[in-house]
Amino acid sequence: MTNQPPLWTTPPEPTRDYRVAGRRVLVRPAVFDAVWHFAAARQAVFHLRAAGEPPPWTTDPVISSWKFTNVYRSADRTSQVLIQDVIYSDPACSAEDLIFKILLFKFFNTESTWRLLERLHSPGPVSWASYDFAAYDAVLSAARRRGPIYSASYVIPPPPYGEQRKHANHLRLLEDMMTGGLPQKIAASGSLTAAYQLLRGYRSVGPFLAYQFALDLGYSPLLDDGETTFVVPGPGALDGLAKCFEDTAGLRPEDLIGWIAETSASHFADRGLTFTDLWGRQPSLADWQNVLCEVSKYTRATLPQVQGTTGRDRIKQRFRASARPLEYRFPPKWGLPPSHTA
User: Fold this and answer.
1) Residue range 266-272: mean pLDDT, rounded
2) Which whole-number Å values give the CA distances from 21 to 167, 209, 232, 254, 263, in the listed order?
3) 171 with 137: CB under 8 angstroms?
4) What is the pLDDT of residues 194-206, one digit of tens each?
5) Is 26 exposed, middle or buried (0-12, 13-18, 19+ CB in 10 A)?
6) What is the pLDDT of residues 179-190, one digit of tens each?
7) Phi and psi, residue 52, nearest 5°
8) Choosing a second label site near 139 at 20 to 30 A (CA), which of 18, 34, 90, 333?
9) Are 293 and 237 in contact (CB under 8 A)?
């Protein structure tokens, strides 16, 4: 692994003290600078790829060598599959079926597993009415013998429903959600925060997992754009914050992420960095949570001497550009341009 420093743009002499919610917090300057460098550089890569530019897309040796998610969670390939092929593929889809499809996709969080389950329903659409546990279990059991059926992005613990296989227990959990009226409750609430609280009531659905599920439900027309006002930091973001801040003055992680979001423009400007947003949409609290998680990884290569809370010191996945072009589409309620191709 390379330990070369990032190629920052003439950073100013760092300031260690900031006022957050009337309190004095202390930052580790090198790590705090890395937050803004990473966000600007990773977003620049996104735009170059979206514009169809050939590589190399960055002079940063770490970003060019290792896999990092986008600044905007919704721009990642898996989120794009969810938005385009699950949520907005069928305008006539009922709220019940839409929530069923989103939750089904999220339990595995991979396009390949989704395609397997789509073929089970062919030629019709995926729906709760045509769901069959035995058929799903057989297909997923066979796929599992060929390779992974879950995403490596984050661990989804198996709920205790008495089945031998993890995927079968997740299917039982999904059944529990559907028969218990979860879709109707989520649709009636119209709120991402309420959806999060409802999801937290199910076994093995912890705070971070419930938040990730709620964010994906929030891409649908059923919920408000709560990711701009509500955040639940995951382990990676907490590690990133621990590396950034020497003293948080007792502020909650959510408060620190909110401050980062509110003051981001000044931090980029102070460092002479240009951040190009998502065609007019500023990063949400969910996106900054994402960035802090990636900075936790990024600094394992650039600032290995700074320890966080996880004890991890390596980045696992190498970057490999996909050969398949991607047409970016975002929830219509965001008011962004209709599509961009990369």
Assistant:
1) 97
2) 44, 28, 19, 12, 12
3) yes
4) 999 999 999 999 9
5) middle
6) 999 999 999 999
7) 80, 15
8) 90
9) yes
* Maximum distance among all Cα pairs of the chain, rounded to whole angstroms: 62
User: Model pTM greater than 0.90?
Assistant: yes
31's tokens: 């790590």
Q: What is the crossing angle of helices 192-199 and 207-218, to 10°?
A: 140
Residue with tokens 């996945």: 317
Q: At 96, is the pLDDT very low, low, confident or very high (cuts 50, 70, 90)?
A: very high
* 65 token code pair: 């060598």
pLDDT the model gives residue 247: 94
Rounded-to-integer distance, Cα 44 and Cα 122, Å: 40
Pick from 239, 238, 234: nearest CA to 308: 239
Q: What angle do CA 214, 38, 308 make, to 5 degrees?
A: 75
284 contacts 228 by C-beta, under 8 angstroms: yes
